[in-house]
Amino acid sequence: MNNQMISENVLEVKDLNVFVKGEHRKERVQILKDISFQVKKGEILGLVGESGTGKSTLSKSILGFIKDIDGEIIHHTKHPQMIFQDPFSSLNPAKKVGWILEEPLRNLGNAAKAERKEKVKEMLAWIGLEEAMLERYPSQLSGGQRQRVSIGAALIAGAKLIIADEPVSALDVTVQKQILELMVKLRESMALSYLFISHDLNVIYQVCDRVLVMKDGEIIEQGEREQIFYAPKEEYTKRLLETAMDI
Prior knowledge:
9 helices, disordered N terminus
């Protein structure tokens, strides 16, 4: 855990309100309300809340997938990327791992084929997979291996901000631990920052420096990990902690 004070932000969200279309074409339904926070360089910022509170909507807004917003989303780093809960659905099942890892580099269009191939091999080492995996399809990988490929695909084009949406919830406890350790290791060695979304407070406690608590589309509490877990101010946060396993 990197506890040193970090002043530089990689992401700033200011007074964000997010809207979607309602049942009627002209209806505008507000999903997120007055969201403000920063992700600091080199930190893992946790975002917790029950299902349906708006966590995934926030991540999609940050990545630009939702356009009907008020407020500001300021990126201080290029190419923020997403790691999804289910890597099997986010990886192209018809393509081999080598192709999947190389695709972000092809999309950038500024590297020759030989250079791309070399970067793919380097990334494979970073994520802890053997070169033989390059010739496998996602269906031939374990859940943990697929999530490693997803992480590699998110990082290979140089992303410094990663939004991880429930990245270990589909994995068993042993593999969860391995993936969390990998993400922390990559944070330190590649100077990454994460917005780490999870409903699992035990996972949040293991990896996060600070925590945001979301309820009904609003951030109702935010603070350092220790403060949120051991001195929460809001009753909702206290209830979330009471329902979690022992920390």
